[in-house]
Specification:
Radius of gyration: 20 Å
Order of helices and strands: HHHHHHHHHH
Largest sheet: none
Distance between the termini: 11 Å
Number of domains: 1
Number of strands: 0
Helix content: over 70%
Strand content: under 5%
């Protein structure tokens, strides 16, 4: 088990990483993880579907009604949102936070699966739900709240800080996945320390990996994005592995 002191020390002593090597290793690791990344995206879609329906059903209802009447009413859509009650909006906010926490927990489970596959261990689909436990899930919710709060503050500061915090916020899931015993404050502290130390290479790889996953996914008739979307996580995993590493190669 890595202590916060040892992790911070490793980050401070981290050597320069090669962009090309990390990208190449990401492709090699992706060959082992792509099917599990697809399952992750599929599970996320199934979980998000009810919320999508709740949001868009009223809009589709108006569109269908207008199509039947044969005319468009410009004020119809504004009427939908005006008609929404306070409790409905509150429900939507809570639902979005809950789903974000579920997504965070699923991503963390996928990161552990990446590590297992990287070290030649056997994985099961149930590993994706490793963090669906009360002791872990309460922490994921707090980390999601912290992420939203940090993102909002960054956005209020003329949006430019968003580009900086994107990297540390991405590391939240990796630090939590491999060090779930750490407190929320420690996870945030380590994430910003690692993100700041390796910001440039992390941000560059994030952009390249995102573009490549989207382009390849679109080439594969759009649905291919479900197979390639998880590729963006691989460079972050490999940076964590290179800088912090693991106390042992066996994932508990």
């Amino acid at each position: 088990m890595n202590s916060i002191e040892s992790i911070l020390d490793k980050i401070n002593r981290a050597e320069r990483l090669d962009f090309g090597n990390i990208l190449g290793e990401s492709f090699e690791l992706f060959k082992k993880t792509w099917i599990h990344g697809f399952i992750l995206q599929l599970v996320l879609f199934i979980i998000m579907l009810p919320l999508i329906m709740v949001i868009y059903v009223p809009i589709f209802t108006v569109l269908i009604a207008q199509a039947k009447n044969g005319y468009a009413e410009p004020d119809a859509f504004s009427g939908i949102f005006v008609g929404m009650s306070f409790f409905y909006i509150l429900f939507m906010i809570v639902a979005i936070f809950a789903l974000s926490a579920i997504q965070f927990a699923l991503n963390a489970g996928f990161f552990r699966m990446m590590k297992k596959l990287d070290f030649g261990e056997t994985v099961q689909t149930s590993d994706l739900f490793f963090f669906f436990k009360t002791s872990y899930f309460s922490k994921t919710f707090l980390l999601v709240l912290a992420s939203v709060g940090i993102a909002i503050i960054a956005a209020l500061l003329c949006y430019l800080p968003i580009f900086y915090v994107m990297v540390p916020l991405t590391y939240f899931g990796f630090i939590f996945a491999f060090n779930p015993e750490l407190s929320v404050n420690d996870i945030i502290k380590i994430s910003f320390k690692l993100g700041n130390k390796k910001w440039l290479i992390s941000f560059g790889l994030m952009i390249v990996a995102s573009l490549m996953s989207q382009i390849v996914g679109l080439i594969l008739c759009g649905i291919g994005v479900l197979f390639t979307a998880a590729f963006v996580y691989h460079p972050f995993y490999l940076i964590y592995k290179s800088v912090v590493g693991f106390e042992n190669e066996t994932t508990p």
